[in-house]
Amino acid sequence: MADTDNHTTTSQLLFNTRDEFTRVDLRHVAYFEADGNYTQVMFSNGCKVMLLVSLRGIEHLIDDVVRGQARPFIRIGKRYIVNSSFILQINVLKQKLLLTDFSSPQVFALSISKEALKKLKDLYTNTKRE
Fold this sequence. Notes:
With 130 residues, the chain is of the alpha+beta class.
């Protein structure tokens, strides 16, 4: 990450390298997916962008942006960080997580382990009850 400048604003992550600039508006991110030392960002409109930063790095940047606020993103295992407000359905038996922004017909189906989905379901339902 030495040649990449990463900055945060109110609800955005900004990534600047020698050859490109990428603005990630967190309000429109459905999920982040690990791809080795890189991260794929999937936006609610289906657009996908590759970032030159690890998923752990993304997690830290999100923490910096939402410091003192409710945390909108949830880490699921080693592979995903999902936007909790996009969760449509958690199906533990089918090992599927469905995400949508609820304003477009786009639905994302992620294959996730039963154990990780059970933890997510418990976390999500316990949080929403309080």
